[in-house]
Design brief:
573 residues; alpha+beta; 13 helices; 45% helix
């Protein structure tokens, strides 16, 4: 669509302006754009009328625009004026561009319309200013919302990072607590035993499968005991020589305090951790572990090294204990008396070392004949255990034999031993019972110092406890004269001397044990005692010790006076 108008007079300009307004409305130009286009055209037309001459106004619609051009028909030097407004395609209606020749209407179109347009534009300007203000306010609000969202995102990220760090710290704390709990429990399990083989057996039970797939304990003296030399990884041999843990694998382990080593030829595919079982004197062996998975966590490796150190201490303590126990037991048995043969009197003795702890060396018995033909029997208990108690026991036995040469009574002998022990070892004490048998004398003389009372079985089977007032313990800082006691002794009688390990129980005390011993002794017939006194001693020990862990050594000495028809004086230990 193209329309043209020649502008020469004011009337021509008014008609053209009205026609353009109708075209803009017909072609769907938005009201605001239409108003702006009309105002711009009015201003251009007034300028053209002011300059004078002939002008051409052309309007055409193309590509969604309604375009206007004003150019001079005469004269030169005036540029072409152009303006455009967006518009959709027309609906096909016929646009009337003819304007009535009414001067008032034309004046209104050219002058009054401009005033209205000016008012509209002013209002539009105010509205645009208000819209601009609101737009700026909305922009600021949007910026604040964006900033708030950014702050919320940053706070969310910080919170997530804090939660992640907290979870990691909690996991690390739980892992540390789990390792410390395991280390404490494992240490308690290892140090609770003083048996080397039991400790070695417990190590795999503790470590597999959580911390190790396999566990091998190499003790240096074990190969010598078996008479063979087993194959051990090179890392284990180097760990034994240097005293430092070794990690044998194809790639470095990066474990704290542990040296890396090439993979073992015995099992190249599996990493190995070889930790020496070190002590203050010399290493006892090497503990070789393989990981439960691909490799160890560094903290787990540190814990395993510490557990191995504690296992070394437990093994060293067990070895010391077993060594001292063997020495004490050997010394104890070497110092036990070979029972003498006395006509008309049978003797049987039993000694059992403790099976729990280093409780060896305190209990002892002795029986010897004096120059006057009498027989002295004694049973005693030195406080303390181990080598020191065994040595003191031997000194007491030697002193007793020396004191008994001059014919002193049992009470006098105990009194001398009391003085001797107090001067020799003021901080060591002992208990003892001494009994004297005289050939042809129908009585028994005895004395006790802090020891459980003897038990006497008569030929009729009745049993009594010889609980006359005893003396105090030997060696206490107290002056004392220990008295003698005499009881009738008929043929067929049996005297039982014993130590507290036979009758004393922690939960029951000593009295129930003495009653059980009396009942066991009274259960024998005289023929059984005279026929096999050692067997009778065994039959007494079995029921007496069946309910005990035997944490103390035990001595039992039976003295049986034969009946006149029995002439076999043999006895045994």
């Amino acid at each position: 669509m193209t329309r043209s108008w020649q502008i020469t007079t004011v009337t021509d300009a008014a008609r053209a302006r009205i026609a353009i307004a109708r075209l803009a409305a017909a072609y769907g130009v938005p009201p605001l754009e239409r108003t702006r286009l009309a105002a711009a055209l009015s201003g251009r037309l007034r300028r053209c009328l002011t300059k004078g001459g002939d002008w051409r106004l052309t309007a055409y619609a193309a590509d969604g625009l309604l375009a206007l051009e004003v150019l001079p028909l005469s004269g030169a030097g005036e540029p072409v004026w152009r303006a455009a407004a967006p518009c959709p395609e027309p609906s096909g209606a016929v646009v009337c561009t003819e304007v009535a020749d009414d001067p008032a209407l034309l004046a209104e179109a050219l002058l009054g319309a401009d005033e209205d347009t000016s008012l509209v534009l002013d209002r539009l300007a105010e509205q645009e200013e208000l819209v601009g203000f609101h737009r700026e306010e909305l922009h600021q609000t949007n910026q604040g919302v964006l900033a708030l969202h950014a702050e919320l995102d940053a706070a969310g990220r910080a919170q997530r990072e804090a939660f992640s760090a907290e979870r990691a710290a909690r996991r690390e704390a739980e892992s540390a607590r789990r390792r410390l709990t395991f280390l404490a429990n494992a240490s308690a399990a290892l140090t609770a035993s003083l048996n080397q083989e039991q400790i070695v057996r417990r190590l795999p039970e503790l470590l597999v499968p959580e911390y190790a797939r396999t566990v091998d304990v190499w003790l240096f003296d074990a190969d010598d005991d078996r008479g063979e030399r087993a194959a051990h990884p090179a890392a284990a041999v180097l760990a034994a020589r240097t005293g430092r843990p070794r990690y044998a694998a194809a790639s470095p382990g990066g474990l704290p305090g542990i040296d890396d080593h090439p993979p073992s030829a015995l099992d190249p595919a599996r990493p190995m951790l070889c930790v020496p079982l070190a002590t203050r004197r010399a290493p006892l062996g090497v503990l070789t572990l393989t990981p439960p998975g691909e490799r160890w966590d560094p903290d787990d490796a540190v814990m395993l090294v510490e557990l191995t150190r504690r296992a070394s201490t437990a093994l060293d303590n067990a070895r010391r204990f077993e060594h001292n126990r063997d020495i004490a037991e050997t010394l104890q048995r070497a110092l036990l008396t070979e029972l003498p043969r006395v006509p008309g009197l049978r003797l049987a003795a039993r000694y059992l070392p403790a099976t729990y702890g280093l409780n060896i060396g305190g209990d002892w018995y002795d029986a010897f004949r004096r120059p006057d033909g009498s027989l002295i029997v004694v049973i005693g208990d030195v406080t303390g255990h181990g080598l020191h108690a065994a040595v003191m026991m031997s000194q007491l036995r030697t002193a007793l034999r020396a004191y008994a040469v001059d014919g002193a009574s049992p009470g006098q002998l105990l009194t001398r031993l009391h003085v001797f022990l107090h001067q020799l070892q003021p901080d060591l004490y002992a208990t003892a019972v001494i009994a004297r048998f005289r050939p042809g004398e129908p009585s028994l003389t005895w004395a006790a110092a802090g020891h459980p009372p003897p038990v006497l079985r008569g030929p009729d089977g009745r049993v009594r406890t010889l609980d006359a007032k005893p003396g105090a313990m030997l060696g206490i800082p107290l002056r004392q004269e220990i008295a003698d006691h005499t009881v009738p002794l008929a043929p067929g009688s049996t005297l039982a001397l014993y130590t507290d390990g036979l009758v004393e129980r922690r939960a029951q005390g000593i009295d129930p044990g003495i009653e059980r011993l009396a009942a066991a002794l009274g259960g024998f017939r005289t023929e059984e005692l005279e026929g096999d006194l050692p067997a009778a001693a065994e039959r007494i020990l079995d029921p007496m010790l069946s309910d005990s862990e035997r944490d103390d050594d035990v001595c039992l000495l039976l003295c049986h006076l034969d009946t006149p028809t029995d002439t076999d004086p043999t006895g045994s230990r």
